[in-house]
């Protein structure tokens, strides 16, 4: 028997584990919203050879299991996770699967202050070929390390909360930022850009440029920083409810 209930699947950004969504997911559970968060294999990987494409394949495997069970899936990619989630949904769209007589499917892809990469472009390409100044590299070990996190990731949080979340960050293979995107989901699956207006890492102007790449996506604004799901969870949940409703409508789901 299939389970057609909707589920939100979160794909974290670089350096972040799925635990970064624990608070948000707890609040959503209290509201009867089911969620899952992906532990992308690149974050803290033992080898720098674990890149974007490994993250995509791992995430696609989890998504495929959900849609094969009939689930209506809203994929939420944060920051770098927007590229992972966006590529991982290839072939899993609800409308496409419905035409093929298959159950379930992805009904919406949400870019939560996230990178939108056209097929063939890498995250480094989106940065104009130059690393951001707070992206650190040590001993040519093949990994990237974050810095200035208080400003870049958590600017609207208390010092105590900032340090708590900084302590959870992991090293990240540089390969994730140089491997190219393999799919453009916005041509086949409903798209939403969820803006974080006070983001100090990915400015609102940059977010707006990414949203334009999507064509005419559903949009929603929060007042939060790059990690608004930590500092403004209620606003993020409001946006995700909009995503769910729009995704169901655009996917032709009426029941």
From TrEMBL:
Name listed for the protein in its UniProt record: AB hydrolase-1 domain-containing protein
Domain AB hydrolase-1: 8-238
Pfam families, sorted: Abhydrolase_6
Family matches, as Gene3D superfamilies: alpha/beta hydrolase
Listed InterPro entries: AB_hydrolase_1, AB_hydrolase_fold, Sec-Metab_Biosynth_Hydrolase
Species, as recorded: Aspergillus puulaauensis
Highest taxon above the source species: Eukaryota
